[in-house]
Amino acid sequence: MKFPLIALFFTLSSSFASDSKLEWQGWSDTVFERAKTEKKLVLLDLEAVWCHWCHVMEEKTYSNPEVAKILKKHYLLIRVD
Q1: For residue 18, how many other CB atoms are within 10 A of its CB?
Q2: d(CA 36, CA 48)
Q3: By the 8 A CB rule, do 47 and 14 touch?
Q4: Each residue of 2-27: pLDDT tens digit?
Q5: Which helix (H) or strand (E) segment is 8 a member of?
Q6: What share of the chain is helix, strand, coil (3-state, %, to 5)?
Q7: Cβ–Cβ < 8 Å for 7, 46
Q8: Which of 35, 39, 57, 78 could tie 15 with a disulfide, CB 3.0–4.6 Å?
Q9: Is the Cα dihedral 26, 27, 30, 32 positive or negative?
Q10: Is the dihedral of CA 65, 63, 19, 34 positive or negative?
Q11: How far is the C-alpha of 59 from the C-alpha of 42, rounded, in Å?
């Protein structure tokens, strides 16, 4: 049951062209090492230019100041196209 929830989470958390003040990083081993050191989770954002929901997430969710505050506090953010 965990796999479908994870897959759904990654699908819904996709976004494109960030205008938010979140600090997105590219995929690298150092990000995962940093997450371990800082005891933070990694939010992996898989994006595609054609994805409608990617744009919705950027506009409605990632631009929300409360969401951004939580993400900055508890996560390291990785964005992959």
Answers
A1: 16
A2: 28
A3: yes
A4: 444 444 444 444 443 444 589 999 99
A5: helix 2-12
A6: 50, 15, 30
A7: no
A8: 57
A9: positive
A10: positive
A11: 21
Residue from 24, 44, 45, 40 nearest 74 by CA: 40
What confidence category does residue 80 fall into, taking pLDDT thresholds of 50, 70 and 90?
very high
Asked if 66 contacts 24 with a C-beta cutoff of 8 angstroms, the reply is no
- CA contacts within 13 A on the Cβ side of 28: 7
- The mean per-residue pLDDT over the stretch 62-67 comes to 95
Which SS3 state, helix, strand or coil, does residue 63 take? coil
The residue written with tokens 């969710």 in the block is 61
Within 8 A by CB and 6+ apart from 71, the residues are 22, 43, 62, 77
Dihedrals phi, psi of 40, to nearest 5 degrees: -120, 160
Backbone angles phi, psi at 71, to 5 degrees: -60, -45
